[in-house]
Amino acid sequence: MTMIRLCIAVTLICVSFLFTQKPVEFARIDIDGTEAGITVTEPAIADGGRLEAKSYGPQETRKMMMSFILPSSAAQWKSSFLRFTPDKDGQVTVTLLGHYVLENGKPKRIDVLFDNIIVEGSTIQNGDLEAAQASGNAPKSWQLGQTPDGDLPRYIPRDKKRGFEGTATIMVWSRGMAFQSIRVKQGVPVTITAMTKMASAEDIAMAMSKAPDAKESDNKYKSIPDHFIDLAPVANMGFADEKAGDGIGGWSDQGPDNDFRTFDVRQTNFGGMEFRIPDPNRNDGRAVITLFKGTKAPHIDIPSKPARFLYLLHTTTYNNEKKGSLIGTITITLADGKTISRDVLSGRDVADWWSP
């Protein structure tokens, strides 16, 4: 069995400028209330830290997200806190990350250790990170994630003794994070305290000694070459859009202030997967397939080859749908005429390109 990878569109890599100092000794916790429409009010942070309001995405959602840049230390574990008040009942997502720093135009990897996450005004599960998932590669109740240009965080169990007072810990960075949702109540302040430390060379070596979520059953597929699907013939939009709402595009037809003209087609690796993206300069200005409501999806003929996986590189715009809402359906017709359909759900398979 081989893998086929299909590139439909390109997810945005969002960046924001942060003041930096050398050496960088900051951790970061993001609070996101967009799923429940919760605004983050009265934010506060420990001395030496700072607040970073979101400056991208739809205006109405920017106050629902806040980055708390926490002072940390390379010399020893440091306790820091943040505080906010939700404006309504519901769930917010708490995300542990490293500080975002650019080096030569690319995100610099700065690893940070987190431990002993304590929440007042709500409840967090497995805040001390001691309980591990069955795989041993992640703490229970926490999900691991990464940006398209990132790498998953690394969980270091307690037997490695790298955490605060020799316990378990998790190593994150700006492009690889750990997160979980907590329930909050309107007007009740939430205080989150965490122990953090900048990862040492020994910490990093220990964390990298075991890759996350590796499956022995997948090893036999590693040597099989990938097969890429050429979308140049069916692409209907480019990355740049000169005029909003003219029905011509490109990208999402939202105009030059909200297009993707800065994307470099030479970038091919997203989340560890390789894709081949049409160059609009060599394809009559077309690079992606953009589907508006009511648009008929293209039929793409693929040479008949055995396959185990089909990878899509896709995104959405104007996506205010609730998590789990149906965005679309991918239908695959096999060589024997049988079909396989897979629903694409918001928040599980795809998200708005401003909040991938």
Give an account of the 3D structure.
The chain has 356 residues and is mainly beta. It is 2% helix and 33% strand. It has one helix spanning 201-208; strands spanning 3-7, 26-32, 40-45, 50-53, 65-71, 78-86, 90-98, 102-103, 106-107, 112-120, 143-146, 154-156, 169-172, 176-184, 190-198, 226-228, 269-270, 273-274, 309-313, 326-333, 339-345. The strands form six sheets. Strands 4-5-2-7-14-11 form a six-stranded antiparallel beta sheet, with no helix packed on it. Strands 3-6-15-10-13-12 form a six-stranded antiparallel beta sheet, covered by helices on one side. It has a three-stranded parallel beta sheet with strand order 16-1-19, with no helix packed on it. Strand 17 (269-270) and strand 18 (273-274) form a beta hairpin. The two termini are 30 Å apart.
Overall number of strands: 21
Report the principal-axis shape.
globular
Mean pLDDT: 83
Question: Rg from C-alpha positions?
Answer: 22 Å
Helix content: under 10%
Strand order of the largest sheet: 4-5-2-7-14-11
Q: What structural class is derived from the secondary structure elements?
A: mainly beta
- How far from one another are the termini? 30 Å
Strand content: 25-35%
| Unreliable stretches | 1-22, 214-218
Order of helices and strands: EEEEEEEEEEEEEEEHEEEEEE
